[in-house]
Design brief:
The protein has 13 helices and 14 strands. It is α/β, with parallel strands linked by helices. It folds into two domains: 179 residues, Rossmann fold; 175 residues, 3-Layer(aba) Sandwich (Rossmann fold), CATH 3.40.50. The strands form two sheets. Strands 3-4-2-1-5-6-7-8 form an eight-stranded mixed sheet, sandwiched between helices. It has a six-stranded parallel sheet with strand order 11-10-9-12-13-14, sandwiched between helices. The longest helix is centred in the first third of the chain and has 19 residues.
Length: 362
Amino acid sequence: MRVVIDARMVGPVPHGFARYVTRIADGLNWIREYSELRYEPVFLVKPGQSEFNGFQAVPLEAPFLSFSEIWEIPRALKSLRADLYHSPTFSSLLFSPCPWIVTIHDLNHLTFGGFKERAYYNVLLKPFARRAQMLLSVSDFSRGEIAAWLKCPRERIGIVPNALAPELGEPFSADQVARVLSSYGLKKGSYFFCLSNPKPHKNVPLLLEAFSKMRAGLAQDQSPWPLVLSMKSFPEREGVIQLGGIKDIETQALLRGAGAIVFPSLYEGFGLPPVEAAAVGIPVIVSKIPPHREALSVLKDDEIFWVESRDVTAWADTLARAVAGELRAPSRQGQLALLSQYSVSSIGQNMDRIYRRVLGIA
């Protein structure tokens, strides 16, 4: 039997959906290595790819979330004789020649999106999700929101959280960190890193305001830390380094070299960067919203620095505390708990169980 999984959003610059799908493939590889897969995973990918994390890949001309995917994906599913299709994002079809599963990570486009985004969710995603063999999400918070939106029982929606990259649990080259930091003029342990994007729900403008306020309030003998943004989307501001299109190896180095990770989101389905930072022992300053609380629940409250998302003064004060060396990093026990909870084996076992259940395989 054949399970076809959409991976067309995966490219050289990683983002949330891409990381999620890549970890699913890693997890299925883990199952295949230690047990057996009772079906064949096949991944739909961008043109030019011949395999995906050791599995068969089928290139599709239709770009991710393009109009043409509506007919190109069903055509590919029919050609592949797929028994099950998994859309691991909100990419939706009008019809499919086989049963399907949908993972809806969150409903941020309904609150923070424009007319086109809301129309897509209501006109395409909603009926596609309602007719799915199974619905999945990444957190209990998102499950509740999606159940209310679709007017379906919470129990109909399974939870398969994000997973952490296996290399986060392994030693990382200090030389590699030093090279990346040197290329940006950064000093290890003395900068803030915001791994995010410029979408409204990420709340980066508030962070920039708080950062400027913090710098203005520092004592003359204090050296201000720079703020490194993983995006290049805002007007230049003193002390802010804006990057664009950083690859995974650079992201890993910047993450591990930071004095603190800052993540001020107003809304998330899961929120992976704070979990990644905490798992490698970097202090985390994060907005006090339910999905962050849920994702980091294995840590003690004093291992994370919680800030109300819209409180500029509280953000500025917490940034100042970091510069003064007052922030504690997550304990080793907490790091190991996160690495275990969000392991590749966990996402692999979860997805394998769901695929077998929908396929009717014991």
